[in-house]
Every structure is written in C-alpha cells, then in structure tokens.
Design brief:
Layout lengths: L11 H15 L9 E6 L5 H13 L2 E6 L11 H10 L4 E6 L7 H6 L3 E7 L5 H15 L6 E5 L6 H12 L3 E5 L17 E2 L2 H7 L2 E4 L15 H8 L3 H6 L4 E2 L22 H20 L1
Helix pairs in contact: 1-10, 2-10, 5-6, 5-10
The chain binds phosphoric acid mono(formamide)ester.
Length: 293
C-alpha cells in the first residue's frame, strides 16, 4: 500500500509506471480493486473530487465523502486525529484536499496505516494534476525532451505549477514562467526555470506549449494585481494572443473567463483543456491502482 503526497517523492521510473497504467486503461484494460476510500475535501473542487469518485467506482472501490464544513475538523479535531479515525474504521485510503500546506509529512505517512493521496494541499502540491498535465502533453507532443513549456499567471499560489514543473523537468522539457512580479515566488530558481518573462507576448514567442494558471483570488490577502481587467490585458490569453500560439495551450481549471483566458478560445482547436479533464479520470484510476493495487 503506497501514498502519493508530492511528485518530489517519485522517481522517473515510478512516474513512467503510473503513466503506463493510465495508457493501458485508455486502451481499454480493466482493473479491479477491493477496499473503501474516504474523499475528504475541505476545499471546493469539481473535477478532482468527481473524477476521483468516478475512478474509485469504476475500479470497484467503495467511496465515502466528507466535504467542506461537515467534518469534525471545524470543531477543532486535528488532521492527524481525523486520519486516525478513518484508519480505525478500516478504510483503505483517504484522498484529501486541504487548505493548508502539508509539509513535512513523512511522520504522517509513517504513523497512519492508510494509503494517503493528496488531491491538493494549500499552495504546496497537487500531484495528480501534475501527472495529468505531463500525460496530456506527452500524448499531444510525443517525446518532450527539449520542449519549451511556459507557465503563465499566478505562479506564487500555484500547487499546479509546483507539481507540474518538476515533472516536466524530469522528462527533459525546459520550463519558464511569466506573470506579474507580485505573483512570482521568491526562490523561483529552485524549480530549475529557464526564464522569467515579464511580457507574456515574449513568452508566447519562446514557448512550444503554454499553461495558463488560475488567478487565485481566494488566496490573495492583499491586492497583488491592479485589477482583473488590467491582468487580463497584460497576461491573459486574448484572441490576439491565441493566434500567435505556436502549439497548444492548457489550463488546469477552473478557468476565470476574461481574466485568465478569453471565453471565445477556451475550447478551441489549440486547447487541451477538456483533454486534461478526460485524462484526469485515467490518471486518478492509475494512481489508485499504483497505491492500492
Ligand atoms: N484542477 C482542479 O484541481 O480543479 P478542481 O478545483 O475543480 O478540482
């Protein structure tokens, strides 16, 4: 029984193993697992929660949901004691989304006898989204050695960037970022980025693939951009910028229309957005199989 908290814990071989399982599932292979999974979602989610639930059911796993303010965490119970409760009740796994950063976590993994799967913890990690993005790009481009991948937007608050960028680097892609300086984290260099672009138009000229990120208004304690309108004008995917894209674009969702991306181009020819959603089901099944199989 394994856990997946951070992509930083995965070797290239392990990532390839998970992608291979997803690839086989896509070709029609079926997998059956036994057990029961708690979906503990303390933050809002549409695609991650529902695709994990669908993945569990299609694999034969029972699911139980604990959502939002309905857990005893609101009464002061710790995350650790909540997990101990699920362990005592005999569940196999907990898929969790939490608003706080779970770091360090080695002690938690050691002391809880459950498979723990991170579906997003604060600004830290969202490993299944990183794997979805890698899988989707490999499908669209084939070998990604040397591929120029640009992340645009709210890098500072993005667990999607912190999960995807190390995976792209692991497979030899070149990663750059672009956004308002207020949304570029200090210490961005630890992510092995090629360039930090101030101009999205320069970034688009450089990139083979662009990943727009959501402006995470709910995590901003102060006004980090002058206005949504000016943010869109300076960094958003407008119709004019869409025409200049050399390859595909992605967005993990949910999208702020006319802030991150123009609604006109969201589901257009160069968009991989719905492919990311579809691949979400495969990757989450593959991760469940990898952890519990
Ligand atoms: N990409 C993502 O995590 O979306 P949800 O918040 O809808 O799950």
């Amino acid at each position: 029984m394994g856990s997946l908290i951070s992509v930083r814990d995965l070797s290239r071989e392990q990532v390839e193993e998970i992608l291979d399982i997803a690839g086989s599932l896509k070709k029609g292979k079926t997998e059956n697992l036994k057990g029961s999974v708690v979906l503990l979602f303390l933050e809002p989610s549409t695609r991650t929660r529902i695709s994990f639930e669908k993945a569990c059911r299609e694999l034969g796993l029972e699911t139980f949901s604990v959502l939002g303010d309905s857990s005893s965490i609101v009464k002061g119970e710790s995350f650790f004691d909540t997990l101990k409760t699920f362990e005592a009740l005999g569940f196999s796994s907990v898929v969790f989304r939490v608003p706080f950063v779970l770091f360090p976590y080695e002690g938690l993994v050691r002391d809880i006898d459950l498979s723990l799967i991170n579906a997003g913890d604060g600004t830290h990690q969202h490993p299944t989204q990183g794997l979805i993005d890698l899988f989707t790009v490999k499908e669209a481009y084939g070998d990604i050695e040397g591929l120029k991948v640009l992340y645009v937007g709210d890098i500072h608050h993005s667990r999607v960037f912190r999960s995807g960028a190390p995976l792209f680097s692991m497979f030899g892609a070149k990663v750059s970022v672009c956004g308002p300086r207020t949304l570029i984290p200090r210490g961005i260099d630890v992510f092995d980025v090629e360039k930090v672009f101030d101009s999205v138009d320069d970034g688009i000229e450089w990139a083979d693939l662009v990943i727009w990120l959501r402006l995470q208004k709910e995590r901003q304690k102060e006004n980090l951009v002058p206005s949504e309108k000016s943010y869109f004008e300076q960094f958003g995917l407008t119709r004019e910028r869409y025409k200049k894209l050399k390859g595909f674009f992605m967005h993990p969702g949910p999208v702020n229309r006319e802030v991150d991306i123009s609604g006109d181009v969201l589901y257009s020819e160069k968009s991989l957005v719905l492919k990311q959603v579809r691949n979400g089901l495969l990757i989450r099944k593959a991760v469940l199989k990898w952890c519990l199989g």
